[in-house]
Amino acid sequence: MFKDIRGYLDILDKQGFLDHVTEEVNISSISSRLAAQEKKGHAVIFENIAGYEGKVYNNIFGKRQFLASVFECPVEKVVDVFGQRLEQRITPVMVEDGPVHEVIMKKGEFDIRKFPFIQHSAKDAGRYITSGVVIAKEPETGVRNISFNRMQLKGPDKTGLRMSPTQDLEAYYRKAVAMGKPLEIAVVIGSHPMCLLAAACGPPRDVDELEIAGALRGEAMELVKCITIDMEVPAYAEIVLEGKLMPGEKEIEGPFGDFMEFYIEPMENHVFHIDCVTTRRDPMVQVISAGSTDDVTLLGSPREAQIKNALTAINIDVKAINIMLCRNYLTCAISVRKQIDLEAKNALMAAFASFKFLKNCIIVDHDVDVFDPSDVFWALSTRLRTEKGLMVVPNAAGFGRDKYGIHTTKLGIDATVPLDAWDEFTRITPLPAE
Ligand SMILES: Cc1cc2nc3c(=O)[nH]c(=O)nc-3n(C[C@H](O)[C@H](O)[C@H](O)COP(=O)(O)O)c2cc1C
Ligand SMILES: [Mn+2]
């Protein structure tokens, strides 16, 4: 497998899926250009940003088929390979040195604002680090955690940092505070795609997610020791910020446009103090807009694997699953080959049980293309028997930032054909060509 993000971008480039923007661009124009790029479905790299050091890349998961390059399997097999590898662990290996230490800058020698991190949405508080993978250690056991956390640029060596109360990182931080010490963290920018996926997948607490990154890659992550903190980071990353969160320190952060396409109000959040920055030569910065294909792929694709595993465990014959149907991971369409007439309801219960944030789930037959929203809506309008096919679960735990609150009502829809009625429900097909 490719070693780092550069190797991955090379693959996309060879496939004709990486657009190079070589003309000089203004940093404030990048956000709207990303939206256009997303429609096109190609990854993009901005190579010349006026007044800034380094390149910016985005849309690395621009098409679902890109995941086939990441997992080195046909696109329809990604969910299975992902599901199998999520169950495995490969312990990282320590290496003496790595490209991420080609440039080392101590406090006073760097200004993180010189990197081309962008402002993503019109009303955001400013420029943000959006692709930062935070590595932290459980203060007592030393078990590593990796997670995404947005960071608002606040100074040459300071950012705001948002962690939700349910994140493992927050639990580690609370423990450090109870022990009266700062929580050291390393923030990785320019990660291997498997490292990004491992950071987004949120397994049960106290699993070293770098072992999951290794398992997803099928080979151990190579790590180097940090310069100023007791932490290990991927040797082939683009940029690492080393520093700490001080006990009890909070400041206003935000507003910030999130993946549901609403703004999060300004709030008291943590502060990240940076002591050292290390980079490769000519480092590249990944930017991830909230609600973009990259964001939704990172959030959604591990959940597809997890939900499919849960359905397979109760013998539901899943043909395909798409949790990115509505540009987030709150609504899922699943096509199944039904074996028992009412088992779509069991499939719905398993799906809701296996992923708490899931708000709506639609089960369709195997001949419906869950990757084509119009086909899913076709099934709703032709095969759903509304009086029988709805399953409403009032007031279950859902996604915390749902505008209607964390207790949401879940809607399950069985839009499948009664097993004994296939003769009437078989779709027309074109006359085969001679
Ligand atoms: C691009 C991106 C940005 C994210 N930003 C945040 C964030 O700012 N705060 C947060 O709590 N979770 C954020 N998440 C979700 C966490 O990464 C995710 O919940 C992760 O599983 C948490 O891991 P942990 O529970 O092991 O700490 C983000 C996810 C993605 C893909
Ligand atoms: Mn974790």
Could you tell me the strand content as a percent range? 25-35%
How many beta-strand elements? 23
Query: What is the helix content?
Result: 25-40%
Largest sheet: 9 strands, antiparallel
* Mean pLDDT over the full residue set: 97
Q: Which structural class fits the helix and strand makeup? A: alpha+beta
CATH superfamily caption of the largest domain = Electron Transport, Fmn-binding Protein, Chain A
- Total number of distinct structural domains: 3
Oligomer: single chain
Shape: globular
* CATH class category label of the largest domain: Mainly Beta
What small molecules accompany the polymer chains? flavin mononucleotide, manganese (II) ion
- Helix run count: 12
- What would CATH call the architecture of the largest domain? Roll
CATH topology of the largest domain: Pnp Oxidase, Chain A
The low-confidence parts are: none
Rg over C-alpha atoms, rounded to the nearest angstrom: 23 Å
Report how far the terminal alpha carbons are from each other: 43 Å
Features:
single chain; 434 residues; alpha+beta; Pnp Oxidase, Chain A; UbiD C-terminal domain-like; 3 domains; 9-stranded antiparallel β-sheet; 5-stranded mixed β-sheet; 28% strand; binds flavin mononucleotide; binds manganese (II) ion
